């Protein structure tokens, strides 16, 4: 059995880096949240792809078989993600198209610059994979959905310029007449540097996103806590009023028996102002939820909105109180914002618990049209630049925390948000 050649070593190193680029492509095309298998199984599938793909190329030396094997294996790479067959096939065709374009561009450019020298094949191995990596980074920059974090362009310039510099360095190295072991070592190092840089950059971005999200949730929690304090104070006033109600009845009886009409009116007016409390529409026993929902529903009734309710949840559910407040507060605030712009609006809320599953469905009517940019919704009513779905990203994040699903639909001037959580 012949020892592995220099070109084959370079191919194996380049192929490993190519698989890293394909992994990035899969993550932004299918999204990490759609990964249905354990992360280690995805790594195992990628390793299997590397072994079979490299083996077919090195030992079969049949271009047609290599293409067929690549196609089948890439479909296998998509299996760890939840996706339709059509999306899997589209992803397979897309990565093949990008790969072929990269190899074609690099090979023809190298031939144009250096002629048909023996090192063209090695240059194509290395630089085409750097180009593939570069293109995927650009695609992530423009197509990946980031709801809250807007990364500076300079950051992306830095991360995309590294493969370009690495490619130039590799070409200079291969054409420089250095010993083969030097070429292998340096090329391997450059690939590793690119992988390490992207990994570190991704970690920094993720930590920055988490910090920004936590700050946002903290501000919202403080606001809703303050709101609940106000609501609870009003409820305490009502309880004190109820406690004194017997004494008020005695006073009313005395005033009526003395036929003192003017004093009678004044007393009733003062009593009416004192008991002008908001109605209690929901009584689940969960104080934070009851207070918030009753407060928001009163606002809807004051707007003349037709309200339909179907609320059946226990007093204690296995969700943190802050999480409950953020989800309901944001969704109700968005509904109120839309209903303030219309007359005779409609609002319906279903909030049901059944055997460890929570179903929350909120529907409200709206005027104008709804446009979507990423995961943010914009209403064309009045100010088309004002977000309609403020806070939906925070809601989505909390829903995913409980392994739930958030679905948003807009049709026939109705805005529907449905949440399913498992607790």
UniProtKB/TrEMBL annotation:
CDD domains: HATPase_AgrC-ComD-like
Keywords: Kinase, Lyase, Membrane, Transferase, Transmembrane, Transmembrane helix
Record domain Sensor histidine kinase NatK-like C-terminal: where: 320-420
Parts of the chain that traverse the membrane: 12-31, 43-60, 66-83, 95-116, 122-142, 154-175, 181-202
InterPro entries: HATPase_C_sf (IPR036890), NatK-like_C (IPR032834)
Any GO molecular function: identical protein binding
Designated name of the protein: GHKL domain-containing protein
């Amino acid at each position: 059995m012949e020892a592995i050649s220099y070109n084959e070593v370079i191919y194996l190193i380049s192929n490993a880096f190519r698989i890293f680029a394909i992994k990035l492509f899969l993550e932004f095309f299918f999204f990490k949240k759609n990964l249905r298998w354990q992360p280690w199984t995805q790594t195992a599938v990628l390793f299997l792809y590397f072994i079979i793909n490299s083996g077919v190329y090195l030992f079969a030396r049949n271009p047609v078989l290599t293409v067929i094997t690549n196609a089948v294996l890439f479909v296998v790479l998509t299996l760890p993600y939840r996706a339709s067959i059509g999306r899997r096939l589209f992803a397979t065709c897309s990565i093949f198209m990008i790969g072929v374009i990269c190899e074609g561009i690099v090979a023809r450019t190298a031939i144009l610059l250096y002629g048909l020298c023996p090192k063209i094949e090695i240059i194509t191995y290395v630089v085409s994979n750097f180009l593939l990596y570069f293109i995927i980074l650009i695609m992530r920059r423009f197509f990946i959905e980031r709801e809250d974090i807007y990364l500076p362009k300079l950051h992306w310039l830095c991360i995309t310029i590294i493969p370009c510099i690495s490619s130039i360095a590799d070409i200079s190295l291969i054409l420089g007449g250095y010993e083969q072991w030097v070429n292998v070592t340096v090329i391997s190092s450059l690939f590793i540097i690119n992988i390490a840089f992207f990994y570190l950059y991704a970690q920094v971005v993720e930590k920055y996103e988490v910090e920004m999200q936590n700050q946002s949730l903290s501000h919202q929690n403080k606001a809703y806590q303050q709101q609940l304090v106000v609501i609870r104070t009003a409820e305490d006033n009502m309880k004190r009023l109820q406690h004194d109600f017997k004494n008020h009845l005695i006073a009313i009886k005395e005033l009526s028996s003395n036929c003192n009409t003017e004093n009678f009116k004044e007393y009733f007016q003062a009593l009416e102002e004192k008991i002008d409390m908001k109605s209690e529409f929901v009584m689940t026993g969960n104080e934070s939820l009851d207070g918030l929902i009753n407060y928001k529903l009163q606002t809807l009734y004051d707007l003349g909105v037709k309200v339909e309710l179907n609320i059946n949840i226990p007093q204690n559910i296995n969700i943190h109180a802050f999480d409950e407040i953020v989800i309901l507060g944001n969704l109700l605030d968005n509904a109120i914002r839309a209903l303030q712009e219309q007359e005779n609006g409609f609002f319906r809320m279903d909030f049901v618990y059944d055997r460890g599953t929570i179903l929350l469905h909120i529907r409200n009517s709206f005027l104008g049209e709804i446009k979507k940019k990423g995961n943010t919704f914009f209403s064309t009513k009045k100010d088309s630049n004002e977000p309609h779905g403020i806070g939906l990203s925070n809601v989505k994040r909390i829903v995913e925390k409980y392994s739930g699903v958030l679905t948003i639909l807009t049709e026939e001037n109705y805005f529907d948000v449905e949440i399913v959580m498992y607790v």
